[in-house]
């Protein structure tokens, strides 16, 4: 399939290029000291992670420890309520630890083990990446430091407890807005000090090369599985696929299975309280090109050109930029990026819970809300939504701020 001059049949051979660019986006904007660490990680990925031994071990882990493949569920009652469009969800909430994050964390931690590293370092917002990496560190016997903003620590208390039970050291970040951006800042600072003995296991398709590529590749198992399963269930491809986008790890992996197919692809960003700067985190919708955290992408900026304050009801989506591959696919038009606000996400949270017995993460609720919205515009067909995580972590926050609807 050729789209806007890009042959998606060979897309993954050419993007990113050898310097980590997806068109103008990506790269590695790091200090001279960290350039060597990035080079070491890149070389290890292209040698160790491409070896048969590594691949076989990762497949075994996915099968025996993670519980992959995760299933697809037909949302029959919700579909019947909406009309003639059939809604389906890819159940990453049933992946061990309750979200898609373990897919790349096990891969990154396995790579760290092969590289002889003793520690993994990461940031987390919603806590799912932190829990996943703490799980991987426990599995492989590695030390683990997780950096998390004070605001998110309060919002995501169950996940903080899980990380600590798993043996991780949760480092509270108290500067700035005390959310995901500040956690990334602190984690990068720690990595710069400890890179000889540690590896930074970034939580999304962001950061300097090779992380956007590595995380996408490890997460592509979601899209590959979903495509095969959906065709097996229905005999055809879905008409549309939908996933939420913050940094963009779940969506990058999910979309990877469908980029070369005649399928409409939708990436959904958080509109939060509205389009005013500071009230949302929709960088692809409202951002401009800029560099932060070692990569060039579309970014929300303040009056000084620095990363702007952002907001979302979902801790995992409140980041002022998005992965460079998402910016590239946005410019190409291959993926249609749109927004959903807090209120519609909360409504979808309760709708899916009540109609189907599935409590989604607030991140996933954005995709569910958009899937419902999209289905109402279609006369027939099917929509496959990536349910990137379960909502256990969000229940206390939702009950406190929104009550039981």
What labels describe this entry?
single chain, alpha/beta, Rossmann fold, 2 domains, six-stranded mixed beta sheet
Summarize the structure.
44% of the residues lie in helices and 19% in strands.
Describe what you observe in this structure.
The protein is built from 16 helices and 16 strands. It has 2 domains: 24-62 and 102-211, Rossmann fold; 69-99 and 213-402, Rossmann fold, CATH 3.40.50. The strands form 5 sheets. Strands 5-6-16-11-12-15 form a 6-stranded mixed sheet, sandwiched between helices. It is globular and about 55 Å long. Helix 6 packs parallel to helix 8 (157-165). The protein is an alpha/beta fold and 405 residues long. The longest helix has 24 residues, at 211-234. The protein has helices spanning 11-14, 32-47, 52-66, 76-82, 102-114, 128-140, 150-155, 157-165, 180-194, 211-234, 249-256, 283-286, 324-332, 342-356, 362-375, 395-402, and strands at 2-3, 6-7, 21-22, 25-26, 72-74, 85-91, 119-124, 143-149, 169-173, 198-200, 240-244, 264-272, 288-292, 295-299, 336-341, 381-387. Strand 13 and strand 14 form a beta hairpin. The mean pLDDT is 95.
């Amino acid at each position: 399939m050729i789209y806007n001059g890009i042959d998606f049949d060979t897309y993954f051979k050419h993007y990113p290029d050898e310097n980590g660019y997806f068109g103008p986006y990506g790269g590695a904007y790091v200090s001279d000291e960290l350039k060597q660490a990035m080079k070491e990680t890149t070389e290890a990925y292209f040698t160790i992670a491409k070896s048969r031994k590594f691949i076989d071990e990762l497949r075994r882990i996915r099968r025996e420890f993670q519980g992959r493949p995760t299933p697809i569920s037909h949302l029959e009652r919700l579909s019947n309520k909406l009309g003639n469009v059939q809604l389906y969800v890819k159940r990453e909430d049933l992946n061990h630890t309750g979200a898609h994050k373990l897919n790349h964390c096990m891969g990154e931690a396995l790579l760290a083990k092969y590289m002889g590293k003793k520690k993994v370092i990461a940031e987390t917002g919603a806590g799912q990446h932190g829990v996943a990496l703490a799980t991987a560190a426990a599995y492989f016997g590695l030390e683990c430091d997780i950096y998390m903003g004070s605001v998110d620590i309060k919002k995501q208390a169950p996940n903080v407890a899980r990380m600590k039970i798993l043996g991780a050291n949760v480092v509270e970040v108290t500067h700035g807005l005390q959310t995901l951006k500040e956690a990334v800042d602190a984690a990068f600072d720690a990595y710069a000090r400890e890179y000889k003995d540690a590896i930074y296991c970034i939580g999304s398709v962001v950061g300097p090369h090779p992380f956007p590529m590595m995380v996408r590749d490890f997460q592509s198992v979601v899209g590959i599985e979903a495509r095969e399963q959906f065709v097996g269930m229905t005999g055809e491809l879905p008409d549309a696929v939908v996933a939420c986008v913050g940094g963009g790890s779940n969506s990058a992996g999910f979309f990877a299975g469908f980029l070369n197919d005649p399928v409409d692809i939708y990436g959904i960003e958080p509109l939060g309280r509205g389009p005013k700067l500071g009230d949302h985190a929709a960088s692809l919708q409202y951002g401009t090109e800029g560099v932060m955290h070692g990569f060039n992408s579309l970014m929300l900026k303040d009056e000084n050109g620095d990363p702007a304050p952002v907001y979302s009801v979902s801790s995992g989506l409140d980041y002022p930029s998005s992965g460079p591959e998402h910016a590239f696919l946005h410019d190409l038009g291959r993926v249609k990026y749109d927004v959903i606000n807090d209120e519609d996400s909360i409504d979808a949270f309760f709708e899916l819970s009540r109609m189907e017995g599935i409590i989604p993460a607030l991140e996933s609720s954005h995709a569910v809300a958009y899937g419902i919205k999209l289905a109402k515009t279609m006369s027939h067909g099917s929509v496959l939504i990536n349910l990137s995580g379960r909502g256990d972590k969000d229940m206390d926050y939702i009950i406190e701020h929104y009550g039981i609807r």
